[in-house]
Amino acid sequence: DAGVHSKAWYAATCDRRMAEDALYRSNRDGSFLIRKSSGQDSRQPYTLVVFYNRRVYNIPIRFIESTRQYALGREKSGEERFDSVAEIVENHQRTSLVLIDSQNNTKDSTKLKHVVRVS
Length: 119
What we know:
This is BLNK protein. Keywords: SH2 domain. Residues 9-116 form the SH2 domain. This protein has 119 residues and is of the alpha/beta class. The chain has 2 helices and 8 strands; from the N terminus they run E-H-E-E-E-E-H-E-E-E. The strands form 2 sheets. Strands 1, 2, 3, 4, 5 and 8 form a 6-stranded mixed β-sheet that branches. The longest helix has 11 residues, at 16-26. The chain is globular, with a radius of gyration of 13 Å. The model has no long low-confidence stretch (mean pLDDT 92).
């Protein structure tokens, strides 16, 4: 189960809208949670939802069947891979996560700082 179910940042019953609403309410850069992906695709089981600069980013978490690992976003060469979703979170609490805004073609970065609970 990727080690997510016992974690404070995992919003098990949360959909995209609920996640985005909760993050807008938190209104703190680096606020985040992880939810199940809407698509119910085994290759993209979760989504990392991050608030930064008054915007919410939904970043897919991919499961890589061949290595049984996880990675963020679209597949790219030299990407970071992790053995669990918890490792992704722990890593990006220490090192910045690049946030790409495809609509405005801008890049930002933030660390995962504040766990948001969906009520």
